[in-house]
Design goal:
Helix content: 25-40%
Organism: Metapseudomonas boanensis
Distance between the termini: 57 Å
Number of helices: 26
Strand order of the largest sheet: 5-4-19-18-17-6-7
Low-confidence stretches: none
Keywords: 4Fe-4S, Iron, Iron-sulfur, Metal-binding, Oxidoreductase
InterPro entries: Asp_de-COase-like_dom_sf (IPR009010), MoPterin_dinucl-bd_dom (IPR006657), Mopterin_OxRdtase (IPR006656), Mopterin_OxRdtase_4Fe-4S_dom (IPR006963), Prok_molybdopt-oxidoreductase (IPR050123)
Mean pLDDT: 96
Shape: globular
Structural class: alpha/beta
Oligomer: single chain
Number of strands: 30
Protein name: Molybdopterin oxidoreductase family protein
Largest sheet: 7 strands, mixed
Amino acid sequence: MTKTLHHRACHLCEAICGLTIETEDQPGGSRRILSIKGDAQDSFSRGHICPKAVALQDIQNDPDRIRQPMLRAGSEWLPIEWDEAFALAAERLADIQSRHGNNAVAVYQGNPSVHNYGLMTHSNYFLGLLKTRSRFSATSVDQLPHHLTSLQMYGHGLLIPIPDIDHTQFMLILGGNPLASNGSIMTVPDVEKRLKALQARGGKLVVVDPRRSETAAMADQHLFVRPGQDAALLFGLLNTLFEENLGRTSHLPTEGLEVVRKSIAAFTPEAMERRCGIPAQQIRQLAREFAAADSAVCYGRMGVSTQVFGSLCQWLIQLINLVTGNLDRVGGALCTEPAVDLVASTSGGHFNRWQSRVSGLPEYGGELPVAALAEEMLTPGEGQIRALVTVAGNPVLSTPNGRQLEQALDGLEFMVSIDLYINETTRYADLILPPTAPLEHEHYDTTFNVFAVRNVTRFNEAVLAKPVGALHDWEIFVGLAKAFAAKTGAALKPTLAPEQMIDLGLRAGAYGDRSELGLSLARLRDYPHGIDLGPLKANLGGRLKTTAGKVEAAPMIFLDDLQRFSAQEIPKEGELVLIGRRHVRSNNSWMHNYHRLVKGKPRHQLLMNPRDLESRGLVDGQRVRVRSRVGTIEVEVGASDDMMLGVVSLPHGWGHARPGVRMAIASEQPGASANDLTDERQLDAISGNAALNGVPVEVVAA
């Protein structure tokens, strides 16, 4: 039987590592996967691979994966034909909107959406026809403060400076654990080697985290910080830079730095040390070392975004890079120039043009904070959400107060899900529409090339044939759009296949028809290992989208939040607060049905400092009850010296043993959902992003 070697990017996390996948032809024309390995010739990942890549084979072969449309009939699921499914969805959604208004139909798009180019190119072909303001996504439990900060300071929500990790001499990481995440809003395959290279060239790595994470363990310095108080540390650092005149003049046109300096004058390291738990002298020394480095970059990720001052944190990080002259500088923070340039081809975004009906939370880019989703379903009145469309999402496990959301989903009139599984969320759907599996369609990364530590591009053909009767995700959206337009009389514009859209984007970009490279899809097909387009370089000055064409250092939404920051009470001694954590074998809730990824040491435990255990009469390995304002869970506790006193850590995405879930391996795993504890009322007040870190909890024996 013929064996074939295929080249493919892994799309299961942000690192987009190159793979070689060997297949063998089978009788009847099918193919069997023999192996998945790292592609040593890949222009970006250089042969690196993490355990998640093998899950591509598990997804393909998973007997629990849905392979045809399914209609719920009570507790049973019945197969249904595509055209009948599209007509049913269109009829029910149109009827609900005709009776209750467009906003009565909501949309939730999950994290896998941005990993899949068909979802990126075509989801709005249908969802846009709904004309609803009730749109939500995983962005507001993950990274909204990043986008809002870039919109306010640089004029575009995707104009996010990326650490120039390969050239920096000093890297300060807050709330990030790239050894587990493979980078996040920093597309960086093989991050461990890159960090070791930083140290080998005489550079320094400093990690700030309430847990001694995998990345913190290899750092030159690790600082414990009180959860939710990273802003206090960042204020102390920036104040020191101003007070001790440690900054460098930036080449970027900038407005508002003097306003910032005066506004934060009271936030000295001495004033901030009690809040963040780091001594003032240590804060000052860190600021001095950062400023003195030949090049330096401050990078903050999920741990600092998902807290009550998440937007302040991201603003302060940008200011620290700016004030030290490291913004838009080699070895500092640089913006990418991707082959398909979403910054050049899209509007910058908008903020707070409307608010959620119940709590008045602001929209960003047409989406409301997902913390408001359940209350918008449960609260009667005009505009109440009565139907939901979910796309590649599992908000019951990934958004705050999941038990409340379960209650809300159970009361909907209609729900349709585009998904591969009957999971904790889609079990409430009336209709599930499954797309082809990842290896059955082409792949181009429209999103994570925008955040890559080098300018790279790569297009990969499908590894396996599209099954008879199956539809790609983009074809599902086209089918739904046609049915909805036929039902409502809405105008439907012609569309192109995703690969044709990518070709247009490549040809219109900086490396396309106007360049010597002449990049097009046809040419890119000749480079299955991808093309390295060069290192990041200074370009922010020419790409600014602000009205004045300058870096806006002092947007009012951040200055106005300083009063809230000043008024926050100092954390009380003896209280416990909850944080999350990541693992390289997991990605949110959608990696737990694959035996290769869940084997090994259990990773579901609540981690707790031994002294906190002892003071509560608890012991390592026992069952404990964890309580917050919104709920209670039971879980095994694990003693860990890596935990800061007063802090407990529970990974999110677990808790699969719920009625109706049809994911056999996941359902057998122990563990509870961290989002049965997180609080939908605990938010970053500026953006509305969920504050999943720093949640007050009690821990007692079960």
